[in-house]
Amino acid sequence: MDRSQFLLLGLPIFLFFTDVVNLFTVPPPPKSAQNDLSSFRSKPNSVLHQQPLQFPIQKSSSSAIGGVGGGVGNIGFGSTINIDFCASCSYRGTAVTMQNMLETQFPGINVILANYPPSFPKRLLSKVVPVFQFGIIGVIMAGEQIFPRLGFAVPPPWYYSLRANRFGSIASTWLFGNFIQSFLQSSGAFEVYCNGELVFSKLTENRFPGEIELRDLVGKKLAHTRIVHGDGSVLS
């Protein structure tokens, strides 16, 4: 086996094992808000004086958000909203829009955007697809040397069909493999959590939330968390 054939066979195997290692690697923990606060406190006083602090204004309007009167005020302080969406489905724009809306409606709230990964079998299959892509391309390019080493005296008939239109077969293999890989990497999710509790699920509703709908759902959850303690007692 010459050097070019060795590269055609060895490169897919190397990429496959690299993807498997990355698949089981634990991602780094997200940056905590405490680190942001400590870095903010470490800034010089001159910077602090140059940037005036913005305090939320407690609204006295009788309008209600999801049944909660008095607007939003500081209801968002100390709360975290997690929006887990399918990054490969081009849902980032919708997630950013919802993030801006929530940060405007609930000053002081912490909105975190993250990718919602597909199930483990789909992730594993998505790592195997490139191996088959490079394997088929390698067979098309050097099948006369590969099949005899595998014990075939004569290549099978389908090989000559692929070989007859070499460039068309390679392009079709690459495009079809990318389509399958994109499908396996997509979860179709847009899940919204308020302080760890699910408030909206696209996987369950089969639709995106409206801005007013999501504002009302988050407002109800924040008001309930603020008024009612975990053991049922009312906070002062």
What is the fold's blueprint, element by element?
Blueprint (H helix, E strand, L loop, with lengths): L2 H21 L9 H9 L3 H6 L13 E2 L2 E2 L10 E6 L6 H14 L4 E6 L4 H30 L7 H8 L1 H20 L4 E5 L2 E5 H4 L5 H17 L9
Parallel strand pairs: 3-4
Antiparallel strand pairs: 1-2, 3-5, 5-6
Tell me what the structure shows.
- Helix 1 packs antiparallel against helix 5, helix 4 packs across helix 9 and helix 5 packs antiparallel against helix 7.
- About 15% of the residues are buried.
- About 55% of the residues lie in helices and about 10% in strands.
- The chain has nine helices and six strands.
- A hairpin with a 2-residue loop joins strand 1 and strand 2.
- The strands form two sheets. Strands 4-3-5-6 form a four-stranded mixed β-sheet. It has a two-stranded antiparallel sheet with strand order 1-2.
- The chain is α+β, with helices and mostly antiparallel strands and about 240 residues long.
- The chain is rod-shaped and about 75 Å long.
Features:
236 residues, alpha+beta, four-stranded mixed sheet, two-stranded antiparallel ribbon, disordered C terminus, redox-active center
How many strand elements? Answer: 6
Helix content percent band: 40-55%
Question: What characterizes the major β-sheet?
Answer: 4 strands, mixed
Topology pattern, helix = H, strand = E: HHHEEEHEHHHEEHH
Shape: rod-shaped
The pLDDT mean sits at 75
Structural class estimated from helices and strands: alpha+beta
Protein name: SelT-like protein
Signal peptide: 1-23
Pfam family, one: Rdx
InterPro entries: Selenoprotein_Rdx-typ (IPR011893), Selenoprotein_T (IPR019389), Thioredoxin-like_sf (IPR036249)
